[in-house]
Design brief:
Layout: E1 27-38, E2 41-53, E3 58-62, H1 69-77, E4 84-89, E5 92-93, H2 99-109, E6 110-113, H3 125-135, H4 141-154, H5 170-181, E7 188-192, H6 200-215, E8 219-223, H7 227-230, E9 235-240, E10 243-245
Parallel strand pairs: 3-8, 3-9, 6-7, 7-8
Antiparallel strand pairs: 1-2, 1-4, 4-5, 9-10
Helix pairs in contact: 3-4, 3-5, 4-5
Length: about 250
């Protein structure tokens, strides 16, 4: 069995050991702010955020509801754009990419895992996992099914390959969503409350899968409210009112 969980090395500029655009880290947020315009006035979701994440780190992002956790992940994945500042991921200046460029870039560089799975209901589990490969035209056609079946084996769901998502449990759907996120072998997995809709035992199973991914070189950024899981992550980023703070509630720069 091939191990599709292992990460390919991210490319750097061999002349200076940096990524493109002068980045020294796999993920860099430089003075990032995000302001939303609402009927009640402007709302600042992120304020002057500086963050650095290196390959192979397992980072838990914590904070109260409305603290900016999901907005932070949306900046890194290119789902949303900063009002000001720079978002550098694997050397790509994400805020400068067009919508079409972001879609292709995300498909190759970041696997996104959502709280509510977001599997395509009319596609089988196998077809859901193949979808990112089809979208980004990754790998030969004959290899896509092989990769998808192997990823299903990695998450122990091979017997369910030809079932629709509605035929399996929530925890199993989340495992399929993780397999889908790994389809194009991205260096980064970004997960927004991936265990928030699961029972404790199933959440532990998902977290152990994340731990195995990190052991194989993936970088994981996970938003969570589960403090038991936070204690098992390698590092924690805490947000309060859109700012990164340390454990004592003091603003920090990364």
């Amino acid at each position: 069995m091939f191990n599709w969980l292992k990460r390919k090395k991210s490319s750097t500029n061999a002349s200076n050991g940096r990524y493109k655009n002068g980045a020294k880290h796999l993920i860099e947020l430089r003075n990032v702010s995000k302001i939303y315009e609402t009927a009640a006035g402007n709302f600042t979701a992120l304020k002057d955020v500086d963050i650095q994440v290196d390959p192979g780190e397992f980072v838990a992002v914590i904070g109260k509801s409305g603290s900016g956790k999901s907005t932070l992940v949306n900046m890194i994945t290119g789902i949303d754009r900063p009002t000001s500042g720079q978002v550098l991921v694997g050397g790509a200046a994400v805020q400068t990419l067009s919508e079409g460029q972001i879609a292709v870039w995300r498909g190759k560089q970041i696997g996104v895992v959502f709280q509510f799975f977001q599997l395509m209901p009319t596609l089988t589990l196998l077809e859901n996992i193949m979808l990112p490969m089809d979208f980004c035209n990754m790998y030969a056609l004959r290899e896509r099914k092989e990769r998808a079946m192997d990823l299903l084996a990695q998450v122990e769901l091979t017997p369910h390959a030809h079932k629709l998502p509605s035929a399996i449990s929530g925890g199993e759907q989340q495992r399929v969503a993780i397999a889908r996120a790994l389809a194009n072998d991205p260096p980064i997995i970004a997960a927004d409350e991936p265990t928030g809709n699961l029972d404790t035992a199933t959440a532990d199973t998902i977290f152990k899968l994340f731990e195995r991914l990190v052991e194989n070189g993936k970088t994981i950024l996970m938003v969570t409210h589960d403090m038991d899981l936070v204690d098992r992550a390698g590092r924690t980023i805490k947000l309060v009112d859109g700012r990164v703070v340390d454990g004592a509630g003091v603003q920090v720069s990364g």
